[in-house]
């Protein structure tokens, strides 16, 4: 019996190692180290965005343009959805129309802050938090 114990331990160890190797193979691609950015940064951002590597695309875009994290994320989401963007084109929701600004300011000054936020959100792509910050700055 004393010889059977070491053989059983070795067999159990081999099984554990094999199971760990199989589990490691199934890891998602996001856990793989990111590729280095290519010389053509815009093409790299587009490639990363369309391959679902959002975090890496946002990092590359921010390094190239100096956009805020939120704006870079919006641009990457737009690219991933098949849209296009160039640095000269404003980020969706970044600019608020003068009529919307005037209506939001009118509502805010009448004490109707929630309605002002709703107006801003209805006419822009701003999140609730961003619309609230915008209205509070009026």
Describe the structure.
With about 140 residues, this protein is mostly helical. Helices cover about 65% and strands about 0% of the residues. It contains seven helices and no strands. The radius of gyration is 26 Å and the shape is elongated.
Beta fraction of the residues?
under 5%
Number of helices: 7
Low-confidence stretches: 29-39, 89-93
Secondary structure tally: strands: 0
Shape: elongated
Described by strand count, sense and barrel closure, the largest sheet is:
none
Helices and strands, in N-to-C order?
A: HHHHHHH
Query: Helical residue percent?
Result: 55-70%
* Distance linking N and C termini: 83 Å
The average pLDDT is: 77
Topology (SSEs and partners):
Elements: H1 4-25, H2 41-50, H3 54-65, H4 69-80, H5 98-109, H6 113-123, H7 128-137
Helix pairs in contact: 2-3, 2-4, 3-4, 5-6, 6-7
Could you list some keywords that capture this structure?
138 residues, mainly alpha, 64% helix, elongated
What is the gist of this entry?
By secondary structure, this protein is mainly α.
């Amino acid at each position: 019996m004393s010889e059977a114990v070491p053989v059983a331990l070795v067999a159990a160890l081999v099984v554990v190692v094999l199971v760990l190797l199989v589990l490691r193979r199934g890891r998602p691609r996001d856990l793989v180290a990111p590729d280095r950015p290519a010389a053509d940064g815009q093409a790299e951002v587009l490639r990363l965005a369309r391959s679902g590597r959002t975090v890496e695309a946002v990092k590359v875009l921010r390094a190239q343009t100096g956009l805020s994290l939120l704006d870079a994320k919006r641009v990457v989401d737009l690219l991933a959805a098949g849209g296009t963007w160039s640095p000269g084109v404003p980020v969706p929701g970044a600019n608020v129309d003068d009529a919307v600004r005037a209506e939001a300011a009118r509502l805010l000054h009448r004490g109707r802050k929630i309605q002002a936020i709703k107006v801003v959100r209805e006419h822009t792509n701003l999140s609730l938090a961003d619309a609230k910050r915008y209205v509070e700055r009026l």
